[in-house]
Amino acid sequence: MNRWVLGGFRPLVGMLVLVAMGCAATPSISPDGGVNDPSDGGMDEMDASDADGDTAVVNDGEGLSVGAFHACHLAAGAVTCWGENAEGQLGNGSKDNKPLPTPIAPASGSAASAYKAVSAGGAHTCALTVAGMVVCWGNNIAGQLGTNASTGSSVPVSVDAAGPATTYASIAAGDNHTCALTTTGTVHCWGQILGNARVPTQIPTPEGSIASPKFVAVTSGVSHSCGLAEGGAAYCWGNNGSGQVGDGQTGVSAPAPKRVQSSVDGGTLSLASLSAGDAHSCGLTTEGTSLCWGGHANGALGDGVTNTTTAPLPQAVLGPGGGAALTFTTLVAGHQNTCGLMSDGKAYCWGSNDHAQTGTGDNGAAVGFPTAVAPQAGGAALEFAVLGSGLFFACGLTNDGSVYCWGDNASGQLGVGSTSTTPSKVPVRVGPP
Would you list the domain boundaries of the chain? Predict the structure, then answer.
């Protein structure tokens, strides 16, 4: 079974900035001033205006990233994580699951670092220091930690430098791979994607291009990644079994970045943000139209189709019940589901809901169209600044810095201090460390 990331995602309500994994929001703030996003992945979202990776950052630098079965929160330069920890992906030096946020340990051989982004992947996590260095921890079977080895680590370890002067602006962890955006606009990836490099390696020149574009964001899904270039051109690479690369084909993997098209005759799109999920991707056009492409499974594309057909070209996300489309500022692609954030902080999710991961107050049948996330039990509707979608759960960060999660809690990924085989159908507040 694939272990998905989100990327995660990374938006900010109204004032948010997104970058790396997942999708991105239209409103944004500079990386140093406010919000960021990334992938993802886990996974999670990326925005052309921000470069802090999978973490969406709000206000004073708070951020959130959701992985397969774990999540991480960034606040005041410190990272805490919770949920599954079988591979050390929580970074606290142990391999015990933690149902409450737990601080990560200092990077191996160094004092505690201050971080500006975090990206939770399948069973590994990466973070970006304020100095632009990347550290990772957790599973390393495919070289996704970037240490030129296959041994995992339960504490942060430094990624091998791609060059003496390389610094990074964002980070996006996928399932068994990681990608990062340099401060000069190039993208490096490592792990199980594009040749399986175990150290940061620059991605190839896009297919059909003479030179590589300058990228402004990167997002990673389970086994594919996407990048947003200056001017809004979107490129994806890696697994394309369900058409998630967006080039009009299915079943043909992309060993080099391919331009996301708008039609079978090669029409192109101008996007403001991107989010790579499991077998699908989503993006927002510069005009604010929500698009998704790839596998329809369980309604992930938001057009009401819940079977296993594919859509290898971007298509419009419909509105609730198939009505008029909503205007989202952020889209976050997860595992067979997607969430969208509006400028007023209202969250909508759709797709797979067998573990109540849409947060819409029900579980079981797939949700084919965007549906509002329910209020917390006994409370008012929540207004989110950041969203992240994992494998069977999702989370959101509110403007006041509170984190809420919903869906599966078998590994403690809801962060409420306990585990349960009964999913939460509505958002529950993550407890303190």
Answer: 6-429
Q: Report pTM.
A: 0.89
Let me know how long the chain is: 433
Closest to 390 measured CA to CA, from 128, 81, 131: 81
- 131-181 pLDDT, tens digit each: 999 999 999 999 999 999 999 999 999 999 766 678 999 999 999 999 999
For 404-413, write each residue's pLDDT tens digit.
999 999 999 9
Q: What are phi and psi of 322, to 5 degrees?
A: 90, 10
Fold of 6-429: Methylamine Dehydrogenase; Chain H (2.130.10)
Q: What's at 160, amino acid-wise?
A: D
- Distance, CA of 94 to CA of 103 (rounded, Å): 12
Distance of CA 361 to the CA centre of its chain: 23
Tokens found for residue 47: 């925005």
Contact (CB, 8 A) for 397 and 66: no
Contacts 24+ apart (CB under 8 A), 103-107: 103/78, 103/79, 103/433, 104/79, 104/80, 104/137, 104/155, 104/156, 105/154, 105/155, 105/156, 106/155, 106/156, 107/135, 107/155, 107/156, 107/157, 107/158
CA distances 293 to 43, 233, 243, 263, 284, Å, are 17, 16, 7, 12, 12
SS3 298: helix
Q: What whole-number distance in Å separates Cα of residue 376 and Cα of residue 66?
A: 19
Residue tagged 């992947």 (tokens):
121
Give the C-alpha separation, 146 to 47, whole Å: 24
19 three-class SS: coil
Mean pLDDT, consecutive 10-residue stretches, the chain (433 aa), reads: 34 26 27 30 44 48 92 95 98 98 84 86 96 95 96 95 83 97 96 91 92 96 97 97 96 94 80 96 94 96 95 96 95 97 97 97 95 91 95 95 97 97 97 90
Handedness of CA 120, 55, 112, 146 (dihedral sign): positive
Closest C-alpha among 214, 200, 299, 286 to residue 257: 214
